[in-house]
Amino acid sequence: MSEKTIIAPEKPGELAGTLDQMVALMRGMADMIRATNERMAALETSVRQLEKVTPGQASEICRSIRNRAEEICDSYRMPGLEKPVATAIRRTVRAATGSRSTQGIARCDFAPVMEIIRDWDEYRTVKRIKERGSAD
After folding, report:
1. pLDDT of residue 10
2. Is residue 32 scored above 50 in pLDDT?
3. Which residues contact 117 (CB under 8 A, 6 or more apart)?
4. Which is nearest to 114 in space by CA: 48, 46, 58, 50?
5. Is residue 86 within 8 Å of residue 69, measured between CB atoms?
6. Which residues have C-beta within 8 Å of that of residue 51, sequence separation ≥ 6?
7. What is the pLDDT of residues 72-106, one digit of tens each?
8. How confident is the model at residue 136 (pLDDT cuts 50, 70, 90)?
9. d(CA 104, CA 107)
């Protein structure tokens, strides 16, 4: 049977010095862990931006753009101008995501893009499209 031995420092000053060293080491470890967590968060963000929408999601985005263009044309009474309105919506999506195509949109941006499409209603743009369309 082994006995538990407690090693007590000979002087109280030694204990304080040892504790100070341990505190300094713990602070250093905490700083390293914090830096590692920040790097991991940055890496996760980068990876999330690299994952693109699925083909099904890209199709849904395109379908939503066409449907919203039809809704806008119905509400502003501009039949036959769905294509230029859809182009304007796509331009807004491109500006918001930085992606040149629907397939290039980051997967994490799918929900915000769908919200942009659902809420899109730029009066000045629609007015300009309507003026150009009626002049033809």
Report:
1. 63
2. yes
3. 61, 64, 65, 68, 89, 93
4. 58
5. yes
6. 106, 107, 108
7. 999 999 988 999 999 999 999 999 999 999 999 99
8. very low
9. 9
Task: Say if CB 134 and CB 110 are below 8 A apart.
Answer: no
- For residue 38, pLDDT over 80 is answered with yes
The full DSSP string for 62-112 is: HHHHHHHHHHHHHHTT-TT-HHHHHHHHHHHHHHHH--SSGGGSBGGGHHH
Q: Which amino acid is at 104?
A: G
Separation CA 99–CA 30 (nearest Å):
39
The ranges assigned to domains in the chain are 13-50, 55-135
68, 117 in Cβ contact below 8 A? yes
CA distances from 113 to 43, 47, 57, 72, 91 (A): 23, 19, 11, 17, 12
pTM: 0.66
Q: Burial, 20: exposed, middle or buried (Cβ in 10 Å; 0-12, 13-18, 19+)?
A: exposed
Residue 133 confidence (pLDDT): 77
Q: How far is CA 8 from CA 3, 4, 11, 24, 26, in A?
A: 15, 13, 9, 21, 22
- Segment 3-27 shows an average pLDDT of 76
